[in-house]
Amino acid sequence: MREIIVNELTQAFQQMARDIAHYLPRLVVMLIIVLIGWVIAYLLKLLVRSLLRLTKFAKLSENAGAAQLLHQAALPSSTELASRFIFWIAWIGFVLLGVSVLGIAGLQEYISRFFFFLPRLFAACVIFFFGLVAASFFSRAVLLTAVNANFRSSRMFSVAIRLIIVIFALSMAFEVLGIAEQTMLVAFATVFGAAMLGLAIAFGLGGQDLARKFLEKKFTRQNREEREDELSPL
Amino acid sequence: MIRELELSEESLLTDEFLRQLINIGEVDIVVGLSTHNNARTIRPVVAAIQAGILKCFPRERVAIINADGGSQDDTIEQVQNASIDDLRRDSKVYALRTLHSISVQYGRIPDSGKALHTIFAGADLLRAKACVLISPETTTIEPDWLQRLARPAYYDNFDLVCPIYQRHRYEGALVRDLLYPMTRSMYGSRIREPYGSEFAISGRLAADYLSNGIMDQDWGRMGPEISITILALTGKYRVCQSFLGAKPPSSRGGHDMVAAMRRTVGALFASLDANFPCWSAVTESQPVPTLGTVTAHPQEALRINRKRLLDLFADGVTQLDPVLSSILSPSVLSDIRGIAALGIDEFDYPAELWTRTVFEFAASYHKSTINRDHIIQALIPLYRGRSLTFVIENRDGSEQDIERREESLCADFERLKPFLLEIWAERK
Amino acid sequence: MAVNAEATWYQHAIIYQVHVRTFSDANDDGIGDFAGLAQRLDYLQELGVNAIWLMPFFPSPLRDDGYDISDYKSVHPSYGTLEDFKKFLSTAHERGIRVIIEMVLNHTSDQHPWFHESRSSRDNPKRDWYVWSDSDSKYSGTRIIFVDTEMSNWAWDPISKSYYWHRFFSHQPDLNYDNPAVREEMWQVMKFWLELGIDGFRLDAVPYLIEREGTSCENLPETHAIIRDLRKRVDEQFPGVMLLAEANQWPADLRPYFGDGDEFHMAFHFPLMPRMFMGVRLEDRKPITEILHQTPEIPAACQWCLFLRNHDELTLEMVTDVERDYMYDIYARDKAMRLNLGIRRRLAPLLDNDRRRIELMNGMLMSMPGTPIIYYGDEIGMGDNIYLGDRNGVRTPMQWSGGWNGGFSAADPERLYSPPILNPVYGYQAVNVLSQKRSLHSLLSWMRHIIEIRRSNPVFGSGSIEFLYPANHRILAYVRQLGKETVLVVNNLSSAAQAVELDLRRYKGHILIEMFGRNIFPRIGDLPYLLTMGPYQFYWFRLRRI
Asked: Where are the domains of chain C?
């Protein structure tokens, strides 16, 4: 009996050793891939950082308002963040590549899904980023125009424009990512439509006087008192 | 490059315009008018031009060229009616020579750059020795203005003749508190009206303006009129200024302010990039020959709502704080916030602070810290604050006091120029 | 008479203005004469002129170049005898050349026997033949014509101790046409010459015949009555004779001198001439077209006389002050050239001896509606001498050759009535008939050619005129029409080449034939007719529809 147990154990250990010997090269390959991937990801990070500095990405993100957001969240600068993001995406990619070498069944599908997801993730980031840029630009343009036209609630208009564009960009990004796209679209449509309806009602009912004054100012002569304020600058 | 310029020049010359130029032939003087729906004001202007030609240049060959941006009223007809020829036999006007007054539509929407380009192209093809530009809205024009502008260019070989206007003490704050001191300190010439709606240039300067591609550059596109002055100041051209007379107040309203800022201050700031080697070497300004004598402007009473100016300034500073912090240094912005909190009785936007403000805006414009057009627009509320100080300081002073104040401001601009050079070179 | 006695011969005439004294000297006394003139008629016939206008050749003290007449029925001995004149007249007629003489109606010389009698006593029968007054305040406000020399229209006569009226020089007292005896006597004078066979009179200074208080003493109705009377007598007794008015007036004021076809046959168009010079310098047709627009219609049998220069100064009386100043500055920068509100220079010096401009001006002269007059010497481009005083600078001897005295006279040069032009540009060695006859391309040859074309096309003499108004103001263009004959004239007044588009749609389908070279030009279509022209170039096109 003891001999049977010893034999079985010996066979089991031998089997285990054979299994380990079978998987060990793959593990080594995986580790090599991961290591090389880390190096490549690091180099990629440096390259992206240099490229972003060259193209003044920091200024663009500052214009977009992204820099302020990151600063408030105690996050690194946008250039640094972007380059780190690239590093992690690249290294995770290599890690997954290494894992796929192990040949573990069931994981292959998720790994290929990850790689298919990457371009959409990139597109969504780009859309959202430029949405931020547009929001910043147009909100500032509206602010300046409203201030110079002597509108009382210039800030409100500016913030509203920024919000609308950001939400619009966000919903586009989610649509590209394919995450709860229907939900986002409906939510955006609802919010946007409600906001417009609300504005129309507010402007139409509550802002009758303002609307009348606005139209009078646009299409009729201004009264003498108002005109005398602004002397000819040239 | 030259071929492109030739083609782009040709595209502004329609066949009909070219035909009219052929019929006119060589002239001595061209009078240019850039119009768009000016039927309300054009008649007295054209009458004064015609009278000026007959009185001051009866023997010279003169042509009036009107570049129109798609007028829907009878502006063009009124200009063409200024022609004097042997067909109009019922005219009461006597002239030794035929006077051609032609119109050309350069486009469907007004564009002062294209208008100037059209007029200068016509003057160049007609080999005019002098080209006088008159605004169709200057109803205060007198026949003698033509002589005061054209004579220095035609007889005395000046390349640019800038105007000097009689102004009400409250008018022209942008010119007197920004454009004049800035142009003077940057380009070293004491041209009082670097942006004049009337001026004269020599045929040589007109031809150079057409050929050196300024119209394709930002500052040339944004402010064609001021770009001519800057071109003359930075090149080897003879410049003078000539006293004209009273300037009528232009139309008022906030939207005019933005456009006015763009085509004057915007163009001026943009020109600093292109002309850095020139203006950075200028250390002091020189007077330019001034012709004619300045007479006092009858100072009619004007009601100014100073409280409103203050409110516009203060509201602007508050609401644009995030924008201004991208443009101005913390110390200047802090000072501006401080004066925005002042009441009307103690309000003062000091000259030195204003100078630093303008210079920091110019430097930010150069570095494009934010969109450049937004930088220009952001200056407007600050300009309103400064114009309030302008009104307060000029209210009680004599003509000499006002002149002294202006000289003092110009001295500040010249004295602080090294500051501009310092921040110009800084990385943001 | 060999000439065609056609009634309106003057409408197709080419008149050559000449002073006997200046043309040719046959008896070598240094002064031109009728014998010499007769010898040169072949030249004039060859040139193509068919009428000569002779300046005064009557006995005279010559203080106004013969316009101060002391004997109306004779010939100044310097120029020959009455017989010489008759021979000359006959020779001219044989060559088909008519003769027009001067008749100074308005005044005589103070050496005339009539004036001697008139001034001798207040009771003399001829006292009233002149206009006398005890004071010089009558007719005040009347303009002085010779402003450079006369201070008043009245002159004091120490003999009769009273003032006499003179519109010209003080030695030319005005005849009193309110006196019927004067009118009758002057008709007898005219009749004397008409009976000899002359073909016309140029009546000098006609606007000034009558004076009336409170008027300008010019162009008065009574003056016209006198002229009508003279015309009636001429038509009745000497049909075919032409009367030419010398009246330096605006066209509207000249019109009455044609009457209803019952006064003068012709009148000089004085205001047009300075404007032609102005137009060429301004390079603008405006002065020319404007004065022609102001020119009224005249009776069908009447005619304007056109000229470029004559024996007097280029008058600037009928222009505005601005125009006069311009003309002085351009054409008479040297003040010595100016005289009596005019410029005393010949055609070629006025045009800087520019052959193209000389041709252009002559082209306009020959193609505009009117009878052209060529001043002697201008056909070869003679120069002037402004330092000879008065208007004598434009009355120098004719230059026939490069030889002795320019071929004018065999007399000693010091004996000539006037020194000839000597400078290297205009002197007789450079500018003379003989040398120009030898070249087909000389100005003389060109003048012969254009006169020939003019004479062979009646449309120029009596056709209508319609101006075209091309947008290029440097081009003066007009259409002459007579019956089916249509001629298009296009003149480039500019010193630079020009392009012009002419609206000739009403002549659509016509072919243009250039009349000098007789080459055909493209047919007129719907589009504006484009012509390109060289500096100062002109075209005469006959329009033909085939």
From this structure: 9-106+176-455, 113-165, 463-544
Tokens describing residue A160: 């509203």
Residue B207 C-alpha, separation from nearest chain C C-alpha, in angstroms: 22
B252 C-beta neighbours (distance < 10 Å), count: 16
Phi first, then psi, for residue B190 (nearest 5°) are -90, 65
Residues B91-122: tens digit of each pLDDT: 678 899 999 999 999 988 899 999 999 999 99
Nearest one of C535, C530, C465 to C493, comparing CA atoms: C535
* Distances in whole angstroms, Cα of residue C324 to Cα of each of A93, B111, B227, C343: 98, 45, 44, 10
User: Which class in CATH covers the domain with range C9-106+176-455?
Assistant: alpha beta
Q: Which CATH code, of 2.30.40.10, 1.25.40.10, 2.60.40.1240, 2.60.40.1180, is assigned to C463-544?
A: 2.60.40.1180
Which CATH superfamily includes the segment(s) C113-165?
Answer: Oligo-1,6-glucosidase; Domain 2 (3.90.400.10)
> What does the block give as tokens for C425?
């540009």
| Percent of chain C whose predicted confidence (pLDDT) is above 90 | 88
Q: Which of A147-156, A214-223, B237-246, C474-483 has the lowest mean pLDDT?
A: A214-223
Residue of B nearest to A137 (CA): B371
Rounded Cα gap, residues C431 and B206, in angstroms: 48
Per-residue pLDDT of B37-52, as tens digits, reads: 999 999 999 999 999 9
Residue of A nearest to B174 (CA): A233
C320 touches chain B (CB under 8 A): yes
Beta carbons of B304 and A229 less than 8 Å apart: yes
Strand partners, C372: C306
Is B85 in Cβ contact with C473 (below 8 Å)?
Answer: yes
Q: Mark whether C204 is an active-site residue.
A: yes
Q: Is residue B355 within 8 angstroms of chain A, CB to CB?
A: no
pTM: 0.82
Domain ranges within chain A, ordered by starting residue: 27-104, 126-217
For residue B86, give the nearest of C290, C494, C499 by CB distance.
C290
The answer to whether residues B226 and B342 touch, using CB atoms and an 8 Å cutoff, is no
B86/C472 CB distance under 8 A: no
User: Are A and C close enough to touch, i.e. 3+ CB pairs under 8 angstroms?
Assistant: no
In angstroms, the separation between the Cα of residue A90 and the nearest Cα of chain B is 33
Active-site annotation holder among C25, C218, C246, C379: C246
